[in-house]
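Board notes, transcribed. Complex of a protein with adenosine-5'-triphosphate.
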Amino acid sequence: MITSVINQKGGTGKTTTAVNLASALVQKKKKVLVIDLDPQGNLSYSLGINDFDHSISDSLLQKKKISEIIVEREGIDIVPTNQQLSKLELGSRSKVSEFMLKEALKKVRGYDFILIDCPPSLSTLTLNALTASNTVVIPIQLDVFSIQGLEQIMDTIQEVKSSLNKKLKIAGILPVLVDGRKKLTSEIKDYVRHNFDVGLFKSEIRTNVKAAEAPSFGESVIKYAPSSNSAKDYLKFCSEYLRTMKKLS
Ligand SMILES: Nc1ncnc2c1ncn2[C@@H]1O[C@H](COP(=O)(O)OP(=O)(O)OP(=O)(O)O)[C@@H](O)[C@H]1O
Ligand SMILES: [Mg+2]
């Protein structure tokens, strides 16, 4: 099962979700590969990878196999990135297609789950992720601007489904950075339920300082602060994710 974590809006918890869903899956004895498809390299950094010799861009350009660039942290296999990736996107159009990642992943075997952390854009890289994936998780903050952006994401997914990847399914929308005290939050949830033909996960990820601290220690929050609300929220989400994947497969 290949899942992209996407949202074209910046700072909506994509990387935090990819890291901690991966970590939670590993706790549940799943074999997991995570791909850092964001030239910012936040996911690689979050898991303490500062070795910039390895990059997914080499696999996209068919210079190296994915298995040659994997780095392991906390039991998670990671395909890191570096600045080359943004050059690839800006580079010669003839070399760049939406099928590069799908092609690179064809030879990858032995994983229960492959998670792809996408950049905050609906660019060629995100299209590569959507083309290679079976499912999509969309982390959003429950505010008005995020909801505005949701329409654009849905349109993009629809376009991908009608051309590049007919089998793509939306696993769900994951509310992140949730502040339970806000009345607006439940109103926005109702709005999403009524206006978008896609499920909201029941699990929510609350705002918690430990989630923000963990990346500077190069650890998932599940390892860094196992008893924190963030760790609990991501473990709970992981169970719901697994149930959803069963239904969708
Ligand atoms: N539950 C949380 N509680 C507190 N802070 C959080 C939480 N989740 C994420 N953060 C922090 O919010 C910021 C944005 O999160 P993250 O990097 O995961 O978002 P992103 O969508 O990947 O961003 P980008 O669009 O730049 O890739 C980070 O500093 C992160 O540590
Ligand atoms: Mg990110």
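The pocket of adenosine-5'-triphosphate (ligand 1) is lined by residues 10-16, 38, 40, 42, 120, 176-177, 205, 207-208, 211-212, 215, 230 (CB under 6 Å). Strands lie at 2-5, 32-36, 71-73, 76-79, 113-117, 135-141, 169-176.
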